[in-house]
Design goal:
It is a single chain. The protein is an alpha+beta fold. The chain has three domains: 133 residues; 81 residues, SH3 type barrels; 92 residues, no CATH class. 29% of the residues lie in helices and 25% in strands. It has eight helices and 16 strands. Helix 6 packs antiparallel against helix 7. The radius of gyration is 23 Å and the shape is globular.
């Protein structure tokens, strides 16, 4: 009899684990067959280009998938498989891409949520034909903020046995935006999802991440985003990034419609008299979008940056990024002449 299979579903993520199984048989009978079944259901499954380029020896363990507006990442590590789904139409918050947003399932359109739920059901049904399956669901959406924190502490390997919670051992994981050191259970101020400053209570999570309960909501923020002392101006929204993205979006629309008078006015509002530059990613063969969030191959939709902004970002990763000048020429900073 085959060893039982554990299936753990959380948000838009499913983990598959089989104890006491041979790595080689797990690869051929579970990982490879999972990919084959997804392809049969219309998924386009290909190798991860970044892993293949940088770490070719483990490239076979990482696959990227696409079907309609859904995307997925499949990875194999020993006797564990992880499949993570996200939607290309979801509202993006993380500047590194929709894959790294929290609550990916909640952000999806209704039909995409149904499609992901169907994928979970199909995977589980197929695995039951191979071996006994134990399914664990981690749906925390209906829990109160403190209940979610307590659940996290109970399941965390980092929790101190006596205290029943993780302990912050290093000052750099507790340093706040105003230069203070944060304590567990301390009152803090932070910007909410729309940039408004709100007050809450901070509870240590892991590394430099802290849970904050504020206004009946639960936030998971790094210490450097929090204030221990009350900010002087509580009425001003800290939404400069969102404002800039919104203005750049209107600028792109004006250019696309050939409304150059409006485009010139918007450009003046955003950049004043400065010239604008773009950032090209060689690995993705596409431009940065606005505010370093996502990629696009469309020059009109590409993010616009001042020279200082573009140069600073390109110098951060000179092996990967190029600065695109107003005349269309590319400047690289990984060469001695730069």
């Amino acid at each position: 009899m085959r060893p039982p299979i554990d299936v753990r579903i959380h948000d838009a993520h499913v983990g598959i684990w089989q104890d006491n199984a041979q790595d080689a048989s797990f690869r051929t009978e579970i990982y490879a067959v999972l990919i084959r079944h997804m392809r049969a259901r219309g998924w386009s499954i290909r190798r991860n280009p970044e892993t293949h380029r940088r770490h070719r020896c483990i490239s076979a363990n990482f696959r990227d998938g696409a079907r309609g507006t859904l995307r997925c990442a499949i990875s194999l590590s020993g006797r564990a498989i992880e499949v993570e789904f996200w939607s290309m139409t979801s509202k993006q918050s993380n500047q590194n891409g929709r894959r790294y947003d929290f609550d990916k399932l909640k952000r999806m359109a209704y039909l995409d949520r149904l499609r992901v739920g169907l994928e979970f059901k199909r995977v589980t049904t197929w695995l039951k034909t191979i071996a006994p399956v134990k399914v664990s669901l981690r749906d925390e959406r209906d829990l109160a903020p403190m209940e979610r924190i307590e659940k996290s502490y109970a399941e965390s390997w980092h929790s101190d046995k006596d205290l029943g919670r993780p302990v912050c051992k290093y000052d750099y994981n507790a340093k706040t935006k105003d230069g203070r050191l944060l304590q567990h259970g301390q009152t803090v101020w932070l910007p909410d999802h729309k940039g408004r400053i709100i007050r809450g209570t901070a509870y240590y999570h892991i590394n430099n991440m802290w849970w904050v309960v504020a206004g009946g909501e639960l936030f998971n923020r790094s210490s450097i985003e929090l204030f221990v002392t009350q900010p002087n101006d509580l009425r001003t929204k800290g939404n400069e990034r969102d404002r800039r993205k919104a203005l750049e979006r209107e600028l792109s629309i004006a250019v696309e419609r050939m409304d150059f008078k409006r485009a010139q006015g918007l450009k003046q509002i955003i950049f004043g008299g400065e010239q604008t530059f773009m950032i090209w990613s060689r690995g993705n063969r596409s431009y940065y979008r606005s505010q370093y969030a996502g990629y696009t191959t469309d020059r009109i939709a590409a993010g616009k940056y001042t020279r200082a902004e573009a140069e600073a970002e390109c110098r951060r990763a000179p092996h990967e990024l190029e600065m695109v000048c107003p005349d269309g020429s590319h400047v690289r900073f990984d060469r001695s002449a730069a």
